[in-house]
Design goal:
352 residues; globular; 35% helix
């Protein structure tokens, strides 16, 4: 675009977070050498997931939407006599993918419906919060809330929709790395963005059965990853279950794990999740005549199937956060706007 916390123990998460915060407030957990680069007013706290020392979503099963774009496409192609293509698309339709919440109104109702369908099937909803003000100031996916006040209300409505159901929430893809490397935000706007993400994280983390991962970009964006440490702290990583990497991107799982562990070491051993929806062939390292390397590049392939059992230290889950076949933007001939379904691209990802 995954998974959740302590299935069957809805009361344990709040108690654990409270237990974690007490020693932090008492100053038992000291500051690391990274604190010099932290924005004013932030505290170096060990993330809750790291203090648990285990994968908070291990063993959870993710919800598969039977009415996904890939499922609908498979049916259309079967009906049209394109049996081989339909079979390829059906492979995508069997994998759980995230639902992106981008609308300004009615988000609570949509989240509630998604979480409830997952709960009825004994599964975990995988959701993406993507509505921070000034979202994607590079303009391919521009939008977001009109004001900080509107965003805080939006986050509360989102959380209310989840309630006590199991969910994994990926918080604001691109928002932090974009603020670091692009010039479209002032320093004041960056600080405001981090504060709003921290508010969303705190709001979601209060839920009893929700796991929260803050997006931290990909290995090709912020290098070295230490540049992410202070912004992630300002954005509430101490309250989250960890961070997310490679969302909507193509870097190989091996490369992402290496990058993620390097970042984890600077965040008290924080856990992380990886978007493997399109990284089967890894990333292309150069732009081509058709468009930029990050935007619907040719030759890419679906990656590892989603799972909460990765057998990799610190890696809580492989997820399909990006819907394979959802366009990155109108960057190439024939490409629809960002987020719109592009069946030809989806088919190429499976065939490759």
């Amino acid at each position: 675009m995954l998974d959740q916390v302590f299935a069957g123990r809805p009361g344990s998460r709040g108690a654990l977070r409270a237990a974690v915060l007490v020693p932090i407030l008492l100053g038992i957990i000291g500051c690391s050498s990274d604190d010099a680069g932290a924005p004013a007013g932030t505290v170096s706290e060990a993330p809750a997931a790291a203090l648990r020392g285990s994968n908070p979503v291990a063993g959870q099963q993710l919800y598969v939407d039977p009415a996904s774009p890939s499922a609908a496409q498979a049916k259309r192609w079967r009906d049209a006599g394109r049996g081989t293509d339909a079979a390829a698309m059906a492979l995508l339709a069997k994998r759980p993918t995230a639902e992106w919440m981008v609308e300004a109104t009615g988000v609570g109702e949509r989240v509630r419906a998604e979480a409830q369908r997952a709960a009825e099937g004994g599964r975990t909803a995988l959701l993406v919060a993507y509505h921070v003000p000034g979202r994607d100031c590079g303009n391919y996916s521009a939008g977001g809330s009109d004001s900080p006040t509107a965003y805080r209300a939006w986050a509360r409505s989102f959380a209310h929709g989840i309630g006590s159901r199991r969910a994994i929430v990926i918080v604001e893809p691109d928002a932090i790395p974009q603020a670091i490397v692009q010039s479209c935000l002032s320093e004041a706007a960056k600080a405001e963005r981090y504060a709003l993400i921290a508010y969303a994280v705190k709001t979601f983390a209060r839920l009893p059965r929700t796991a929260v991962y803050i997006d931290a970009g990909n290995p090709g964006w912020v290098r070295p990853p230490t540049g992410l440490v202070a912004p992630l702290r300002a954005s509430g990583i101490a309250r989250a279950d960890g961070f997310a990497l490679n969302v909507s991107n193509f870097y190989s799982t091996k490369k992402v794990i290496s990058y993620g562990r390097a970042l984890s070491r600077r965040l008290h051993g924080a856990h992380f999740v990886i978007d493997t929806s399109r990284n089967g062939n890894g990333a292309t390292l150069n732009d081509d005549a058709g468009g930029p390397k990050w935007c619907n590049p040719p030759g890419r392939a679906v990656g590892r199937s989603p799972t909460t059992s990765t057998h990799q230290r610190k890696v809580d889950a492989y997820l399909w956060v990006k819907q394979p076949g959802a366009s990155d933007g109108t960057c190439r001939a024939g490409a629809p706007p960002a987020g719109h379904w592009w069946p030809e691209y989806a088919l190429s990802l499976v065939r490759n």
